Amino acid sequence: MNTTADVSTIVLIAVVGYQCMLLAVGLWASRRTRSSSDFFLGGRKVGPWVTGISYSASASSAWTLLGVSGAAFAMGPSVIWVALGSLSGMVLAWWWIAPRLLEASHQQQLTTVIDYLIAPNENRRSNALVRSAAVIILIAFVFYVAAQFQGAGLAVTEVFAVSDTLAIVGGALVILIYTWLGGYWAVSLTDTLQGVVMCLAAITLPLGTVISMGGLGAVIELIDLGSWHGGGTDAATLSAIGFAIGSLAISLGTFGQPHLMVRFMALKDHLARRTAARITLIWYLVVFSGMVLTGLVGRGIFDSLNNNEQVFFALSEQVLPPVLAGLLLAAVLSAIMSTADSQLLVCASTLSHDLTDETLKGSPQVLRRGRWAVLIVVLLAVLVALFLPAPIFSRVLFAWSALGAALGPTLFARLLGWQIPDGVRVTGIWIGFGLTVALSLLPNAPGDILERLLPFAVHSVLLIWGRRR
User: Fold this and answer.
1) CA–CA distance from 82 to each of 88, 89, 249, 447 (Å)?
2) Count of domains in the chain?
3) What's the pLDDT tens digit per position in 189-236?
């Protein structure tokens, strides 16, 4: 980024200050973390603002600021279907799934989503089901977390003259420390800070663009001009329909995300849930609209970019005053660096709670194992980010779709009270995951409709067929 030395200093101070604040949150949260329930669920006492904003930030993360804006730059107005897909999944999750998970969490003292998937009237835990779900969660989240670390590396290298390796390792170290110390409270509070920063960025950049361009009329002209640039989606009607359906199918992935479902389990009551749902809806509308607009305007300004996912930074530098652009990039950079914590915590609960002996549940040993599990997953994700890089949008979308297809139908069956044999459930989980992996290796179709829709549908049909009547 070409700014003066003074601006670079301001950016550096802002980034370092934000990271120090995250560490301070971790230290504060460590005082409230005395048991495994505190570490993984915040003692089930979390309020609406923290839950609503942290859910939004955790669900959206780096792929919204960089991925959605980059997709809008590459695909044009067609990207609106991606935003609508994410929004529809969030609405169903908050207004239908959330009340049921909250109730079950408090009544049955559940700690993880896998706990919920095991029917309460069973006399024994299905070890095959637990292990299958745990393995898939760990595999998907290592790649998911790696994408977040990679997003942090992209942001750091755009602002400072440092290597990707240093950026990724430095960001991962900060996340490791505060997640290790404070567990769910630290993760939720830092995600709330991140969500506020993302929302401010989604307002500031479009507003700055309108002011810089001289009004809405000029911005609309730029968007119209962008529709002729960059290889937009000028496909046949059938292809356009396929893209729309495939993008809307993104919503199916929402229902298999343990780091989102656990937010509902940690809420303190239903009043907090209703307030949090409204907060989440407003946040989604603001942030997704802002990032879609950023990408569309970028299409009109830039003929091409070396990396589509840098359009956020490029537009900031183009339309904002240097100091404001520097502060905005510092804020977004800091937020991106803290997006992986929720997934890390789920991995920790999977390794230390779900895969541990029943007699140890709730013991101090589980808390210690949880902290070491965070370290293991951080190391694996850093290695993937460094040695197996991939586009952020594609990597997150793969992990999102794989978890949705593997766990989503099973969660719905559990919510509906269906009685399904263990063998059918385990088979369904692996079919959903395996089909997603196989289809992800094929050439991309418009909207990736097969990858996003077919595995979920096949898994669902299997559960309906195997349902005990």
Assistant:
1) 10, 11, 9, 9
2) 1
3) 888 888 888 888 888 888 888 888 777 777 777 676 555 554 444 444
Q: Is residue 399 one of the residues assigned to a domain?
A: no
- CATH at 279: 1.20.1730.10
Helix (DSSP H) and strand (DSSP E) numbers for the chain: 21, 0
More confident residue, 99 or 209: 99
293 falls within a domain: yes
Q: Which domain holds residue 128?
A: 5-392
**Is 418 a domain residue?**
no
The neighbour count for residue 24, using CB atoms within 10 Å, is 12
Q: Identify the three-state secondary structure at position 8.
A: helix
Dig out the tokens for 268 from the structure.
């303190």
Rounded to two decimals, what is the model's pTM? Answer: 0.84
Mean pLDDT of 418-442: 90
Q: In 3-state terms, what secondary structure has residue 267?
A: strand
Q: What is the pLDDT of residue 211?
A: 85
Question: Which pLDDT score is estimated for 279?
Answer: 95
From CA 213, how far away is CA 298, in angstroms rounded? 12
CB 38 within 8 A of CB 185: yes
What is the distance in angstroms between the CA of the first residue and the CA of the last residue of the chain? 63
Closest CA to 262 of 77, 111, 133, 52: 111
- For residue 216, is it within any domain? yes
